Amino acid sequence: MADKAYITPIVFKWARESAKISAEIAASKVNIPSERLLEWEAGTSQPTIKQAQTLAKAYKRPFALFFLPDIPRDFQPLQDFRRSDSKALSTGSVFIIREIQQKQAWISETNRENSERKYPFVGRFTVKDNPAEVAQDILNTLGISPGKYPNGNAVKEWIEKAEAKGIFVSRTSFINSHLTLDSDELQGFAIADPYAPFVLSIPKIGPRRSYSHSYTSLRTSG
Asked: Are 214 and 162 contacting, i.e. CB atoms less than 8 angstroms apart?
């Protein structure tokens, strides 16, 4: 008989729900009825070690996390500036956001420990400031002139100028490329941090809708 994994039920359930995965889909990963999975989450029965390891991989969580005594402190949800009619975030979006947050947290902590300088443009404005002034400040700081992009490549210009100022830029084509994200669900986001500002943008959206909005978020969060 396979060894049982005596997981902490509340943590086990949280791992699935935080990944935005339904009980039915999670159960299918280990070829069991969803009722059995709910029993594991309720603590009335336990999965095997192999089953728990499979689900840890599906949830993109460390296997050892299932054995913590309580739900761990996770990354704080990003402030949502999407339209009110935007789609709810799917599992793919949640995983992309989590991965960027992990990378950003590690770099930020490293820079703090090494006494690196803070970036003065992060959090320079608030949501109450004039949008036109914020936009102009972004252009001035990055040294960008709309309509005058070298070789007509606007995306390359925004990325290079942002990275030159210390902003980490990621695009979904470079991480978790097997995931397909719906632009009606997620166009991009920014993490405003004075030691490691991060921007993620979906390539097909283009600079005007995604990059500019994300850089604005860097300035109006702090």
From this structure: no
Integer Cα distance of 10 and 196 in angstroms: 33
Point out which residues pair with 168 in neighbouring strands.
Answer: 198
Kindly tell me the sign of the dihedral angle through the C-alpha atoms of 18, 21, 24, 28.
negative
CA distance 91 to 88: 10
Q: What is the pLDDT of residues 103-158, one digit of tens each?
A: 888 899 999 888 989 999 998 888 889 999 999 999 999 998 887 887 778 888 88
Vertex 133: Cα angle to 129 and 135 (nearest 5): 105
User: For residue 175, what pLDDT is reported?
Assistant: 55
201 and 175 in contact (C-beta within 8 Å)?
no
Q: Are 170 and 139 in contact (CB under 8 A)?
A: no
Among 50, 47, 58, which Cα is nearest to 19's? 58
Q: Is the pLDDT of residue 51 over 70?
A: yes
* Residue at token pair 């941090």: 193
Instruction: Compute how many other C-beta atoms are within 10 angstroms of the C-beta atom of residue 192.
Output: 21
Residue with tokens 């252009």: 139
Q: Which helix (DSSP H) or strand (DSSP E) does residue 47 occupy? A: none
- Please identify which residue in the block is written with the tokens 């960027």: 100
Percent share of the chain, pLDDT over 90? 38
Q: Is 8 left (phi over 0), alpha (psi -120 to 50) or beta?
A: beta
